[in-house]
Amino acid sequence: MSDEFNYSFGEQGKGSEHTGLAAYGLDLNHTINDSLSTDIFYTNQGHFPEHHRDGAGASLMLNKQLLPQLTVSVGAGPWAYCDTLIPDNGKPAQDLHGIGATAGVAAAWHAKNHIVYQVRANYYTAKDSFSSYSAVGSIGYEFGGDAGTSSFSQSDSSSSDNSSDNSGKNQISMLAGESAVNVPGNVRSLATSVEYRRELGKSLDLTVAGISEGNNKFADRSGVAPELWLRENVLDNRLSFSIGAGVYAGVDQRKEQEGYASDKFAAAIVSTSANYKFTDHWNASLTWHRVLTSYDRDADVVVAGFGYEY
What we know:
2 domains, mainly beta, eight-stranded antiparallel barrel, single chain, Porin
């Protein structure tokens, strides 16, 4: 089986409104057999006048190989969205969350050098939010298999070995980057994190991270975040992609200033991470956390750094 990692960009529409070429996304596609694959994705739909919406989800894809290098696909699945609503009447912005569904069609060309070119149309809907549609192009990389041949004709070949020889090992990482609160204004600040990771199995990890989001106009927040992760290993287990979810609790010293009874908070957190091992013990990682709050202070926390595995 093989995996594809794709970056997409294009246009998102909502009725007569369009974002221009401001929509973008990431997805990891995993081949199950000759006609089925799973697609885990993140999409940022760009900025409409009152809505800044993005989200993540998973689709089950039906695939048909038309030529050795060309496949067409159709799929559908659930997605979870975050929408920053910015009223035009000057009222404070709100962070809205919900669950919806998505469906799409795609055509992909597998080049000779493991590069995958794709065009795709998607439709997104949600009960308590607006429906939208997109037309995007993407460029990606196929891990394993024969270059220049669709991965759906190689389902018997092993392209990514998930049987990690590191199960049960531990990792300590030091990371730094930026936090951005999802409201208009001066929202960026220095973020730092210390993370402990333990492999529970060949595709499952547990992390506990101490996160400081720094101090900006809207938040001065820090806390502890335990998460469970699903991991996919490629390139002889040197490179891994993972997606995690958990809880994040601590103190936001700006919360009481806005009329709340306490500066303590508890939020959901969802994350994606890429990790590359350059020695048997040392690795580099890039992690994106989305903090989902109940008091309109959602945030993106992007950190990178180095870790030691033992």
